[in-house]
Amino acid sequence: MKKAVAMMLALALTMGCLVGCGGGDKPADDQQKTDAPAEDDKTDEPADDAADEPADTPADDAGGEDPYADLGDFTMTVGHAQPEGNPRFVSMEKFAEDVAAKTNGHVTVTVMGNGQLGTEKEMLEQVVAGTTQGMRGGQFDFSPRLLMFTLPFLTQTRAEITALLQSDLAKKVCEEAEGETGTVIINLCDAGGYRQFSNNDHPIKAPADLAGLKMRTNGMTTIDKTFIALGATTTTIPYSDLYMGLKTGVADGQENPWVNVEGMKFYEVQKYFTEVNYQFHPDPFYVNATWWNSLPEEYRTIISECAAEMGTYNDQLIDENSEKAKQTIIDSGSEVYVPTEEELQQFKDAMQTVYDQCVEEGICTADELKEMQDIVANAN
After folding, report:
1. What is the arrangement of strands in the sheet containing 195-199, beginning at the earlier edge strand?
2. For a surface tag, which of 35, 153, 284, 308 has the fewest beta carbons within 10 Å of its beta carbon?
3. pLDDT at residue 63, as a whole number
4. Structural Rg of the chain based on CA atoms
5. Is 77 exposed, middle or buried (0-12, 13-18, 19+ CB in 10 A)?
6. According to the model, what pLDDT value does residue 179 have?
7. HSE of 191, CA atoms in CB hemisphere, 13 A
8. Which of 15-19, 71-75, 78-82, 322-326 has the lowest mean pLDDT?
9. Whole-angstrom Cα distance, residue 89 to residue 335?
10. Domains held by the chain: number
11. pLDDT in tens, 266-296
């Protein structure tokens, strides 16, 4: 009997120790879980469907098979001339992120902005040679037919620009580039928005105000022809050298969109601006054709889709930032003049000679000019 009592006391002491060791040292998170319903108390509601949905990328996040594992890894270096914060810079960063995500990291895009790889012409030469895989920028030396979209006062609204750049005519001109330059144009968006005049001498309110001014251009023939038709002379200065060229008086003035003027701080060396909205530039995304054709079809499809999304995002950023950039220029102390409709018509009337010259030089045919005008007329 005594042995039985002793065994019962020992057992009680052992159980007490076990209870004591399992209680007071629980972490706070575990203690908070005591209010959760027991298994039998759970409702009959179905589990979250999101757990059964496929992930955004083809590979299963839980370690499923990577469908691109056998396609190989590729690297793509892309250059451009714009500084950080510019819509081209921002949209190119998004492009690189999207490509990496959608190929499960098998295609890596390195973006070299701010002219790190040289001038736009030098970058395009690198793409043609195959030393760089791609570049974005309004560089048309090797694809001069793209200049047809830069005819002065051809469009007036975003809808008209988009209609032109997504037209069958634009696709035809882009397809011509591969045979002529060894590049593939995988997207065509807006280079920066409508372009404005500026100078350091006086406000430009009429074509006569340009007479005698030396205006900087990037060498694009439609810009040169526009300024010459308005009575100015022109000088070619690379984009990366333009700030110093304006500061030292190598050129009296220039033309650029508001977002470019703000990003490059041209307002620090230009006093008078005129919101003339005379021209926009297409922004081709050139890719070396040999490299492009070496990619598996799956990667070409993904990169093309990402480039299309990038172009849409780029144009959206331009529209969102143009007015902000213009206000920054005004706040800096520069003068911004907005012509009346009558004053603006004087500039437009002087452009017929530019249209005639572009047809004569084969930039576009008379039929293509009429096609562009019809596209614009039906866009709104």
Report:
1. 233-236, 214-217, 253-257, 195-199, 272-274, 335-337
2. 35
3. 56
4. 31
5. middle
6. 84
7. 27
8. 15-19
9. 27
10. 2
11. 999 999 999 999 999 999 999 999 999 999 9
